[in-house]
Amino acid sequence: MAKKKQQQQSGGTPATVALTAAGVPHTVHAYEHDPAHPSYGEEAAEAMGVSPERVFKTLVADVDGVLTVAVVPVAGQLDLKALAAAVSGKRASMADPTLAERTTGYVRGGISPLGQRKKLRTVLDTSADTHPTICVSAGRRGLEVELSPEDLTTLTQATRAPIARISSPSGV
């Protein structure tokens, strides 16, 4: 815990700074990032010993020409049609990664829904409601922040909608 507090006091990332400034209870989890791992989110869940249903990935999509953040569990996939519908849009596609990085101020695999360079509309998958806390990127690879879905919704002014397709464990 001392390491976590020390990191926040020394500035942290824009995401952890935003959480601290807002007085939101949270826990920072650091782990050694393996560049060879095929999935940033699954790597985070494994490293922290947390269920992939509680670790959420931050994706940036283009909905009718407007960049939109989608926060979905790493155990599932973003449903682009559902995302478009959640923001009253017609068509959604994944945003250009370079544009996503430039707009949020974070690198791919470390994009946080918090503390972004430019505030983007955000949609949080409703599966977050089934957990007292969830983990999202804290703004860099190998760093996650755990907080309540309610606090994440408030800080990002997110819409909550069913935007993820969750794979069943048996593959059915």
Tell me what the structure shows.
- This protein is α+β, with helices and mostly antiparallel strands and 172 residues long.
- It is 28% helix and 28% strand.
- A hairpin with a 2-residue loop joins strand 2 and strand 3.
- The protein starts with a helix and ends in a 6-residue tail after the last strand.
- The N terminus is likely disordered.
Task: Write a concise synopsis of the structure shown.
This protein has 172 residues and is of the alpha+beta class. It contains 6 helices and 10 strands, in the order H-H-E-H-E-E-E-H-E-H-E-E-E-H-E-E. The chain has helices at 2-9, 14-22, 40-48, 80-86, 97-104, 149-156; strands at 27-30, 56-63, 66-73, 76-78, 92-94, 121-125, 134-140, 143-147, 159-161, 164-166.
Main beta-sheet strand count, sense and barrel state: 5 strands, mixed
> How are the strands of the biggest sheet laid out side by side?
5-2-3-6-9
**What spatial form do the alpha-carbon principal axes imply?**
globular
Number of helical regions: 6
How many strand segments?
10
What are the key terms here?
globular, 28% helix, 172 residues, three-stranded antiparallel sheet, disordered N terminus, 28% strand, single chain, alpha+beta
Topology:
Layout: H1 2-9, H2 14-22, E1 27-30, H3 40-48, E2 56-63, E3 66-73, E4 76-78, H4 80-86, E5 92-94, H5 97-104, E6 121-125, E7 134-140, E8 143-147, H6 149-156, E9 159-161, E10 164-166
Parallel strand pairs: 3-6, 6-9
Antiparallel strand pairs: 1-8, 2-3, 2-5, 4-10, 7-8
